[in-house]
Amino acid sequence: MSDSNPPSPEATEQPVKAGCVVKAFIIALPLGLAFMVPLSLWIYYQKKYAPQEAASHLAPMLQRELNAVDMDRYVQGFVQGIGDRSLANPDGLNAAGNYVESTMGFANMGYNIQRQEFEAGGQTVANLLAELPGKKAKKDTVLVLADYDAADASGIASMMSVAHAMVGTNHNRTIHFAAVAQGDAAEAKANGMEVLAQKFAETGITVAKVVLFRPPLKSTPAAWQDAEFIPLAVELKDLTPTALDMLQRLKKAVENAADK
User: Residue 132 pairs with which residues in a beta bridge?
Assistant: First the structure.
């Protein structure tokens, strides 16, 4: 005679319930994945193509007073840290572009850097733009130009210093600080200035004034024929009495262009 007791109803129900839970999970898992995948893709593309701020809301906190130390650090970064930044040295040219983008970007100066990539000499190069929104319509802009691939790095270093000092400030016109590659190339589609002019024209941006932190353009893009050009080559070469005085004159020229 067996002394074992028959299982209670509760004991027999537990495995059945557990089995139902497992089956429900197995059925729900693919349904959940089928829902989550398109949702994740939707979120990704919403973020990717959403309009981005021209500058960080923390930009005023990132503003830095003009100083010759920063400018010299930028010059040394280009000349000694990177070296040759021509098409003959693609690694150096790319490194210079990355240096501009990271230094002027959200984390350091607060700008949202726009890249304009194009082909030159069989390789991909890029213009880099930092936008300082103005009070008036964005379509009427002041364009500040400097070459980041020129042997003389004083122009691009000065522009970066001025951009850092002006981040978060308010002016009548929008200001675009443009670090350009291949600005004197003979072929239009490989010329950074021509590419920049074309991109602006495509988006309906009218350039009212062009402030040159570089030598005069060898040829002026047709879209900029009516713009006022403000050459600053004299200021860039004049280091007396101090480099800081030079930077202050450059900054004042940009402010006047944006406010008058």
Answer: 175
d(CA 209, CA 212): 10
For residue 158, count CB atoms less than 10 angstroms from its CB and return exposed for 0-12, middle for 13-18, buried for 19 or more. buried
Residue 33: what pLDDT? 43
| Burial (CB count <10 Å: 0-12, 13-18, 19+), residue 249 | middle
Backbone angles phi, psi at 86, to 5 degrees: -95, 175
Burial class, 178, CB count within 10 angstroms (exposed 0-12 / middle 13-18 / buried 19+): buried
CATH entry, 59-259, from 3.40.630.10, 3.20.20.80, 3.10.20.30, 3.40.50.300: 3.40.630.10
Q: How many CB atoms lie within 10 A of CB 175?
A: 25
Distance CA(248)–CA(235), nearest Å, equals: 10
How many residues make up the chain in this entry? 260
Q: Dump pLDDT digits (tens) for 138-165.
A: 778 999 999 999 999 999 999 999 999 9
Q: For 145, what's the count of Cα atoms within 13 Å in the CB-facing half-sphere?
A: 29
Provide the whole-model pTM.
0.78
